[in-house]
Amino acid sequence: MRRSTKLAAVVLSGSLGIASLAACGAKSNDTTASSGSSEGGLKVGMAYDIGGRGDQSFNDSAARGLDKAKAELGVAVTEADAKTGEAEADKETRLKNLVTAGYNPIIAVGFVYQGAVEKVAKENPNTKFAIIDSASDTQPSNVTSLTFSEQEGSYLAGVAAALKSKTKHVGFIGGVQSELIKKFEAGYKAGVKSVDPSIAVETTYLTTPPDFSGFNSPDKGKEAAQGQLDKGADVIYTAAGSSGNGAIEAVANAGKLAIGVDSDQAAQPALAKYKNSILTSMVKNVDKAVFAYIDSAKKGSVFTGVKNFDLKADGVSLATTGGKIDDIQGKLNDAATAIKSGATTVPTAP
User: Fold this and answer.
1) Residue 56 pLDDT
2) Residue 29: its pLDDT value, please?
3) Nearest Cα to 255, choosing from 227, 280, 283, 274?
4) Closest C-alpha among 335, 307, 295 to residue 153
């Protein structure tokens, strides 16, 4: 996907901290006057997780919501990228620079921002913040958590994997061994076992905190997938941001099936040559959450507390691009209905 242009001096005046924003990797889609003023309108700042816009997965989903808000709500926006291996202070500085530049609300993409958001939000009580994929009992009232029931969508991915596996051997690759990614693992394994308890499930995590490079290392994803393929797995689900691109490549080269995550990866231009090997993707509709949050802010009734998007609310779903799950759609619908009705409770821990 096309990356937005770097934030230039014509967008933000020196008094709004141009130099510090540029140092933190800020970019802008701001189409307002040269002073950077939105003429009284809403100015939304987005701070991405590592991988940023163009990762074909998690960040891109958030970016789609931001783009829609810009197009349909007429808000001014700016974007700031994270760096692999950055310190906590870098995240804090990125958020502070957005505050100084007058962006309000500010959306932090990913649980890695939890500490930074809490600190900066407490220091700036008049600025609204949203954080995706994280909720804390200690965060101030000007922070909204946008969360998802990843385990429910992953359960359906597990059902699909089990129904399509010819070897009765499937795999799961997690980017970083965190409580969030364990929800993906737990749901996936439960879905697999609901179809056939005898199916083997390989599990590999690329990194453990505080190393978050597992979300932005396609080479590690490729290596992990190859390891699982060598053990006999023929369907592999990867929840690892852009690292999943490497896993998909390895699976496609082996003539097996991959399950994507967050975005409909079979529909991503950068992964077009592998689309025939992508069985489905567990789509986490971050774009819908981002747009809904910005819309609530524009209307003057911004979401507060924790706003969760589950299967019933279309917060998660399975992509159907390519038609590879058409023949099992009936069973997937039955599984989804059981979750929505409460007949099936999906675990959140492996």
Assistant:
1) 85
2) 40
3) 274
4) 335
